[in-house]
Every structure is written in structure tokens, then in C-alpha cells.
Amino acid sequence: MPQASILIVDDEELIRESLRLDLLDTGYAVDLAGSGEQAVALLDKDYDLIVTDLIMEGLDGIEVLRQAKSKRSDQAVFILTGYGELDSAIEALRLGADDYLLKPYNHDELILRVAKCLAGRRLRQTVQLYESLLSICSECKKIRDSETDENGEFRWISIEQFISKAIGSDLSHGICPDCYRRKMAELKEMIRGGQIFPSPR
């Protein structure tokens, strides 16, 4: 499995460095940002997790969270907060943060919660992947439509119907050279076997 990448955002150098060492020791790749502005400038990189302090000068952790989620809706964000900032931490959870941890943090709890956030993001990505795949019946080759019928059940429609719906136009039918040759061979075999045009008696 590739090494998970984590962005640490905190305006206190001592906390940044402590977090960096804790996460490096666990095997993660770590980048640092000393402010919310620096963190936002790094959001073009696809981090597996952003660990951000909540209260910072300039752009705070809530704004880092908002901008990270607007960039990638499945971005995992972990909030670090002080005892007096629990209301703000709860607001961060409402805005889509995956978890929060009170400072000063316990090393083992941090590592456990970071692993949980990363596992949650991997699960969400797996679900999104399966949702993006087309379900095709292995027998009749119909495709499961994204719309449901009057009973709330998914409809199964032909490939032609699905493509017409997707591109908004009707399809013309033809036969490819390989299928033409196969069908002609089958026809000749049927004629030879007397299944078509049987010999007069």
C-alpha cells in the first residue's frame, strides 16, 4: 500500500514539529504549513489527511476545512483544538471534519485516530468507485439504470436504451464484420444440415 501523505497545519512550531515526528515515526509522509494561508496554497496536492489546528491567526482551521472540502469533497480533515474551543470543534464536525483531538494530545490516541480517519477515507473512495461502475447483467446484458421505477426499485434497461439516454439521441443498428462472418457461417451450416431449405422428398 502506498505511503499515506499528511499535511500538518499549525502556527506553533513546537506543535508542528512534535506532530511531524510522531507521524514520521509511524511511516507517513508529512508536509508542514505554518498558517492557514500556507495550507490553502498547498491544496493542489492530494493529501490523504489534513491535520489542522483550529485557532490560528489569519485563516483558521474552519476556513482550511472549508477550502479543502471545496477542492475535494472526500478530503479527510482532522482538527486539533484546545479545551476552550469545543463548540468550534463541534461546528467543524458539522462542516465535514472527520474527527478532532484536544491539545495537549496523547501520542497513542493521535496515531489511533489518524489511522481511523485514513481508513474512513479509503472506504469512502472504494464506495465511490463501486458507485461509478455500471452494473451489467451477466445473462441478458441489460444495464441497471440510475433511476428507479414506481416501486422504488432500480430498472434494468437494454444497452441501446442506456446509451440513447446518456447521449440524448437514438442509435442506428448495423452488424460488424466479425459478427457478419460468424452469422454467415452459421447460416451455411444450417443450410448444409437441412435445417433451412430442407431437401424435397
Question: What can you see in these coordinates?
Answer:
- With 201 residues, the chain is of the alpha/beta class.
- The protein folds into two domains: 5-132, Response regulator (Rossmann fold, 3-Layer(aba) Sandwich), CATH 3.40.50.2300; 143-192, no CATH class.
- It has seven helices and seven strands.
- Strands 2-1-3-4-5 form a five-stranded parallel β-sheet, with helices on both faces.
- Strand 4 (77-81), helix 4 and strand 5 form a beta-alpha-beta unit.
- The longest helix is centred in the middle third of the chain and has 26 residues, at 107-132.
- The mean pLDDT is 85.
Q: Descriptors for this entry?
A:
single chain, 201 residues, alpha/beta, Rossmann fold, five-stranded parallel sheet, two-stranded antiparallel ribbon, 7 helices, 17% strand, elongated
Low-confidence stretches: none
What pattern of helices and strands is seen along the backbone?
Answer: EHEHEHEHEHEEHH
CATH superfamily of the largest domain: Response regulator
**What structural class should be given to the helix and strand makeup?**
alpha/beta
The profile of the biggest β sheet is:
5 strands, parallel
Count of individual beta strands: 7
- Share in helix: 40-55%
Summarize the structure.
With 201 residues, the chain is an alpha/beta fold.
How do the helices and strands line up, and which of them pair or pack?
Blueprint: E1 5-9, H1 13-25, E2 29-33, H2 36-41, E3 49-53, H3 61-71, E4 77-81, H4 86-94, E5 99-102, H5 107-132, E6 143-148, E7 154-157, H6 159-167, H7 177-192
Parallel strand pairs: 1-2, 1-3, 3-4, 4-5
Antiparallel strand pairs: 6-7
